[in-house]
Amino acid sequence: MHKTWVEIDAESLRHNIRSIRAAIGNGRGIVLIVKSDAYGHGAQSVGKIASEEGVDRFAVAAVKEGIELREADITGEILLLHPPLDFETDTCIQAGLSPTVSSVANARLISDRADFGSVGVHVEINTGINRLGLDWQAAASEVQQIASLPHIDIRGVFTHFRGIDPSDSSSIDQQLQRFEKVVQAVRDAGIDPGLVHAASSHALSRFAQSHLGAVRPGMIIYAGLDPKSPITESTNGAASHMQSMTGVMSVYSHVLHCRRVEAGEWIHYGETFQAPRPMDVAVVPIGYGMGYSRHFSNNADMLIHGRRAPIVGVVGMDMTVVDVATIPDVAVGDRVTIMGRDGSKHISAFELAERSGTIPYEVVCRLGNGLPRVLVNANESAARAQSAQVAVTESAHR
Ligand SMILES: Cc1ncc(COP(=O)(O)O)c(C=O)c1O
After folding, report:
1. 348 CA → ligand 1 middle, Å
2. Do 12 and 346 contact (CB within 8 A), yes or no?
3. What is the pLDDT of residues 36-76, one digit of tens each?
4. Is the pLDDT of residue 234 over 60?
5. What is the DSSP letter of 233?
6. For residue 273, which of 145, 277, 312, 331 is within the disulfide window of CB 3.0 to 4.6 Å?
7. Catalytic residues
C-alpha cells in the first residue's frame, strides 16, 4: 500500500500499441521511445509489455537506459538517440546499442572503437529542427563517407520534426521533402539507408505520408491523442484506429485529514486563498517534492467520490489542500484521483499541462519519476496476449 502512487495500466499500454499498429498498417515498424524511464512509466516494464506486443525497436537517450533495457532481457534493437560521447562509446558498443550518428566525426569515433565486426548505427539528418543531425544539404555525400568506414553498418536514416501543433503542417511538409531528397540521393549512390523513419506522435497522428518505414512514437502511446490536435482526413483512415487510445498513467492518493475552515481564514502557506465562507477542506499527501507542480496552486482539481475538488491555496512540498464543500461524506482514507478517471470524471495529463503552463510530457515524467509506481492489469493482459498468440498458432495449424 502507498499513500500516494502512480498506476501504470498494462492493458491500456497494449491497447495503444495495437491502435498505432492498426493505424500505420502492416509492413511498417514502430521504434518505441522509452527515454526518461519511458516518460515516467517505467522503461523496463514498458519494454517487456511492448516486446510481448511485437515491438522490436526501442529508443533511449542515455547509454545507461539502454543497459537497463538489456538487463530486463529486451532483445530488440535499442537506438541511442544521442550520439555517444568519447567516454561512453565503448560501453555503448559493448551493450549492443545502435547509436545515432550526427556527424562524420561521430561515425569515425565509433568505427575506430569497434575493433571487430561492425556497429549498427542510425544516421540523423537535420531537415529543420537544428538540433542533432547532418545538415540535409550536405547529408548525401556525408552518408557516403560514413558508409565507407570499416566498422559501421548503417541500419537506419532518420529525421525529427520540429512541428508540434496543428499550425505546423507546412514545416512538416518542408522537412519531409528535404528528408526524402536525402534518402533518394543516398539510394542513388548505391547505399542502402536501412530503416527510414521520421514521425513522432504529432506527425504520426496527422500526416500519413510521414509514416515511411517506421514511426517513432512516445507520448501518443502513453497518453493517447492530444485533444488540442484533432486528427484530420490527411491520416487516410488511420485516424479511426487512434480515437480509442487512453492515458496509461493514473495518479492516486488518500485523504490524509479533513477540517472545517471558518470564513475569512487563510488556507495553507502565505495568503493566497481566503475562505469566503465556512469551508470543508481535505488535505491530500502530494506536492511538488513528488512531481506535482506548484503551478497547480489554486489552479487545478482532484477527484473525490467522482466529483471535482478544486485546490485551495498553494501546493506544498508534500501536501495540498482541496475544497470538498460540494462533496458529501469525505473522510480520512478516501481515495483521491489526481490524474485519471473516477466515475464519469476524468483528469488527463493534457488538462494538467494546460493548467500549469507546460506540456503533458513534463507532467508524466515528473509524476512518474517522483512517486512509487505500480503496474496494474499486467497478468490479465499478458494472459490475454498469450491466448491470442495460441489462437493464432492454432489457426495456423488447422
Ligand atoms: C528523436 C525523437 N524521436 C521521437 C520522439 C518521440 O516524440 P513524441 O513523444 O512526441 O512522440 C522524441 C521525443 O522527444 C525524439 O527526441
Report:
1. 20
2. no
3. 999 999 999 999 999 999 999 999 999 999 999 999 999 99
4. no
5. G
6. 312
7. 35, 269
